Amino acid sequence: MALPELVCPAGSLAALEQAIEHGADAVYVGFKDPTNARNFAGLNFTDAQLARGIALAHRMGRKVLIAINTYMQAGRVPQWYAAVDRAADAGADAVILADMGLLAYAQRRHPQLRLHLSVQGSATNAEAINLAHQHFGIQRVVLPRVLTLAQVAQVAQNTPVEIEVFGFGSLCVMAEGRCALSSYATGESPNTHGVCSPASHVQWLQQQDVLSARLNQILIDRFAPGEAAGYPTLCKGRFEVGGSIYYALEEPTSLNTLSVLPELLRIGVAAIKVEGRQRSPVYTAQVTRVLRAALDAAGRDDYAVDPAWMAQLTAVSEGNQETLGAYHRPWR
Amino acid sequence: MNPDWLLPLRRIAPHLPEAPAGFAVCQTLNLVARRLWPDEDFRWLQGKTARLEVSDMGCGITLGHNGGRFIHSGKAADVTLRAEVAGFTAMLRGQTDPDTLFFQRKLQIEGETELGLHLKNWLDTTDRSALAGMMPGPLARWLQP
């Protein structure tokens, strides 16, 4: 059985090197600007770093995919066009795009450049994916994390486009490409500025071992002494609703698909993606190593999840729990 | 978790003036900066001060950048990253990532979060094998277990 590509995150050249060393087939990266959805201070690639990363990856027979997956903003369209041009000039193996105007530009300007429809493109059914295929020639789609395994299979059977699914990483409310929640607190959202919780709006305050997180002055969570903390995003905050304080939207959780890898292989997905360009090279190394071992094993009949893999992934997870997310969902 | 040789240091460190250690660290950073961070202009640190504080040693250093060189600062820091020796050690040796330490409440950030994020990502994405290459043998081996 052909194995899917293992696609791993790199927020820096050091992380890209780790991904390649530990067995990623492809590494996805972004530029240092709002054209990608992990536009964080001190992360991402200059053109010189990208050139070094692509040279290394190609020398090792691996691919580099460049995420330009935010939405073009009025008056600043040339910045997104330029990002596509830079990716093409650098020799990227594909660009991961969401904005239809940008897809059209990339197809027109760089007909040889491989196009992937980003998870931010929010295409959850074969009709939407096929439309993007007809109009822009997309060759792969990254499926939003809202589909059950049966639905992933259904989509895969009805499109000629390669399917990429998330295999591991922090979960959000999974309204990818359609989430503007953080803009209510900060005026900025992932689609427009490439960040959920812009760091310039985040305040952490530690008082008597109680850690408070505020987003633009709004208290979004308070962690008791010793309690695990999470990213300061609105969707994972605890709020008072009907007299009780709880995770009113969702609890910090990580997606972990080790137990369903053989099913994903049977469905014929082309790639398994790891979330986390905001994380450290150490995270990229740890998660890539585990997913590489698991994927190689999943191609064999006697596949079983090694408890050591689970322990290693749990150690780097956000939140106290892991889930199969929508892949396994008894309700519809 | 902390090595024994730290015990006497922990007793003395809080009583020592910070300036000599701060100058030494900045001098070292200035020596290796061009080779270690060739693409970095440190504009994000100019006019700002950032503090690395070792909580179980009761000491730390505060530094800034003047556009050309790292400079030690005695002023209150705009951002502080605080962890125990064990936390900083694990990060330095590439044994754990800062976000995991943060989730576990073993790394604290206080002050300007964006500056802190920049500082964290700068330290975290430093090429550790290149850094080890500039260190004397035992230190290099310790850095790359």
TrEMBL record, chain A:
<keyword id="KW-0004">4Fe-4S</keyword>
<comment type="subunit">
    <text>Forms a heterodimer with UbiV.</text>
</comment>
<protein>
    <recommendedName>
        <fullName>Ubiquinone biosynthesis protein UbiU</fullName>
    </recommendedName>
</protein>
<keyword id="KW-0378">Hydrolase</keyword>
<keyword id="KW-0411">Iron-sulfur</keyword>
<dbReference type="GO" id="GO:0051539">
    <property type="term" value="F:4 iron, 4 sulfur cluster binding"/>
</dbReference>
<comment type="pathway">
    <text>Cofactor biosynthesis; ubiquinone biosynthesis.</text>
</comment>
<dbReference type="Pfam" id="PF01136">
    <property type="entry name" value="Peptidase_U32"/>
</dbReference>
<feature type="binding site">
    <location>
        <position position="179"/>
    </location>
    <ligand>
        <name>[4Fe-4S] cluster</name>
    </ligand>
</feature>
<dbReference type="GO" id="GO:0006744">
    <property type="term" value="P:ubiquinone biosynthetic process"/>
</dbReference>
<dbReference type="InterPro" id="IPR001539">
    <property type="entry name" value="Peptidase_U32"/>
</dbReference>
<dbReference type="GO" id="GO:0008233">
    <property type="term" value="F:peptidase activity"/>
</dbReference>
<dbReference type="GO" id="GO:0046872">
    <property type="term" value="F:metal ion binding"/>
</dbReference>
<feature type="binding site">
    <location>
        <position position="172"/>
    </location>
    <ligand>
        <name>[4Fe-4S] cluster</name>
    </ligand>
</feature>
<feature type="binding site">
    <location>
        <position position="235"/>
    </location>
    <ligand>
        <name>[4Fe-4S] cluster</name>
    </ligand>
</feature>
<dbReference type="GO" id="GO:0006508">
    <property type="term" value="P:proteolysis"/>
</dbReference>
<keyword id="KW-0479">Metal-binding</keyword>
<keyword id="KW-0408">Iron</keyword>
<keyword id="KW-0831">Ubiquinone biosynthesis</keyword>
<feature type="binding site">
    <location>
        <position position="196"/>
    </location>
    <ligand>
        <name>[4Fe-4S] cluster</name>
    </ligand>
</feature>
<keyword id="KW-0645">Protease</keyword>
<dbReference type="InterPro" id="IPR011060">
    <property type="entry name" value="RibuloseP-bd_barrel"/>
</dbReference>
UniProtKB/TrEMBL annotation, chain B:
<feature type="domain" description="SCP2">
    <location>
        <begin position="37"/>
        <end position="124"/>
    </location>
</feature>
<dbReference type="InterPro" id="IPR036527">
    <property type="entry name" value="SCP2_sterol-bd_dom_sf"/>
</dbReference>
<dbReference type="InterPro" id="IPR003033">
    <property type="entry name" value="SCP2_sterol-bd_dom"/>
</dbReference>
<protein>
    <submittedName>
        <fullName>SCP-2 sterol transfer family protein</fullName>
    </submittedName>
</protein>
<dbReference type="Pfam" id="PF02036">
    <property type="entry name" value="SCP2"/>
</dbReference>
